[in-house]
Amino acid sequence: MTTTPITPTGLLPTLPGPAYTDPATFLREQERIFEARWFCAVRAGDLLTPGSFRTVTVGRENVLITRGRDGALRAFLNVCRHRGARLCTEEAGQVRRTFRCPYHAWTYAPDGRLVAAPNLKDLPGLDRSAHGLIGVALREWLGYAWVCLADEPPSFEETVIGSVSARLGDDRAVERYRPADLVLGRRVTYDVRANWKLIVENFMECYHCATIHPELVQVLPEFAQGWAAQAAVGHGAAFAQDVEGFTVDGSGGFGRLPGLADEQDRRYFATTIRPQVFVNLVPDHVILHRMFPLAPDRTRVECDWLYAADVIDGGADVSASVELFHRVNEQDFAACERTQPAMHSRAYAAGGVLVPTEHHITEFHHWVTSLLA
Ligand code: FES
Ligand code: FE
């Protein structure tokens, strides 16, 4: 790389260790971040048929997302209005017509209406319209359903689209890859024993790339210098000259996605979308991570590899491109898991330091602490 995006000024502090372990801090993050802001929940393409559903953890709530007979996606708190049983106990599935509570069989339509209950005739006073499922705000963007538990959701444009790193060039840079039109080629779910902020910080920096990502550095040699692609304004990272595609062995990938300009060819771009999404953009596919923070020291990560429909429909073997970032994920998450136990240590009570290639992480720390203040 020719430009240095941040003037080296020495060392900056990290957050103190307890920020990654303290249950009270995690509770505040659940309340003020995951339950208060838009949260990327599910891939819309996973729910193609009426009655298909997924359930996901958002903050302290479990949210049911389903497609109605009218084709619309809707989200609800996954709680039966009778005595509070979890309505849908599976992570994913398909109902024929209705959701039936496993406890006393109150039954709800995919649009949330309470449509039946046993011995309803004994309950003449039950106002069914007042006992439907509690709805949750939902927006679709980039092919994903984003939900917001707040009574008055903040502006999606400002808080989600506006959080796409300006360093990609512009807010709409991710849309140029048209992830909504792409098809899921592979999904891997990782159960990471680390705080969600350690995972964000790790994704934001590439100081570790030379140490733990030998395959990635082969494809993106400038990463060996430690400057992350998202710290470089609109620049991305160039593929190595002898590499044909973003694959584990440098073999050729697939055709360039429609709509991409020459500037995006043979380059890798990355961004975070707050609070819990990472996007990796390469010419022939998009990799999108959604994090589900479950506990101070535990985060579920779903990683989707998305390709052009004709690649997947044609039965192409995507394993060489999946394997590259799957290895990166395993290397990154192992590093985060190695860090997590030490967050309890007296050695880290006041935190650690950020070197210049990591200074942009401070912006993330400021964002979190300002929301928790
Ligand atoms: Fe669901 Fe009773 S708790 S029907
Ligand atoms: Fe990494």
TrEMBL record:
Residues 40-147 form the Rieske domain. It comes from the Bacteria. It holds the Pfam family Rieske. The keyword RNA-binding does not apply. Keywords: 2Fe-2S, Iron, Iron-sulfur, Metal-binding, Oxidoreductase. InterPro entries: Rieske_2Fe-2S, Rieske_2Fe-2S_sf, Ring_hydroxy_dOase_asu_C_dom, Rng_hydr_dOase-A. One of its GO terms (molecular function) is 2 iron, 2 sulfur cluster binding. Gene3D superfamilies: Naphthalene 1,2-dioxygenase Alpha Subunit, Chain A, domain 1, Rieske [2Fe-2S] iron-sulphur domain. The keyword Iron-sulfur applies. Its cofactor is Fe cation. This is 2Fe-2S ferredoxin. The lineage of its organism: Bacteria, Bacillati, Actinomycetota, Actinomycetes, Kitasatosporales.
